[in-house]
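REQUEST FORM: STRUCTURE PREDICTION
Request ID: SP-0412
Submitted by: Lab K.M.
Chain count: 1
Length (residues): 132
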Amino acid sequence: MHRRLVMALVAATSLGLAGCVSTAKKETSSRPAWISEPGDGVSAAAGEHINGRVAQEELAIARARDELARRMGVRVSNVMSSELTVAGQSAVSSAQSQSTQQVTGAEVRASVKAKWLDTSSGLLWVWLVPVK
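STATUS: Completed
RESULT:
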């Protein structure tokens, strides 16, 4: 009786694992070419953000926009300060960011052409291209 129970459990586990393998989705983790070769645009990334994915995307876009503005002759100055306070098992984080852009007769317009999340590192990449 005990032997039959063990055999039934082994068979059920094997079938369950086989089902998981056949229905598992393949992740495409190949890095897009536009990250290394953005053409006329720029690529920028941001790591995981304490305020979630939307804040992570906004940070990546801001970094790309600043780099694109620099390439177009706009003076960009960024100041970021952050503070992390840990007491026992709780932590409080705060951050302040200031971006100053001085334009000399040029308007910088761009749009996000692509986004890619590197699941192994948590980096969210954006590809920003100038609007002509």
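NOTES: The CA atoms of residues 95 and 104 lie 30 Å apart.
Reviewed by: T.R.
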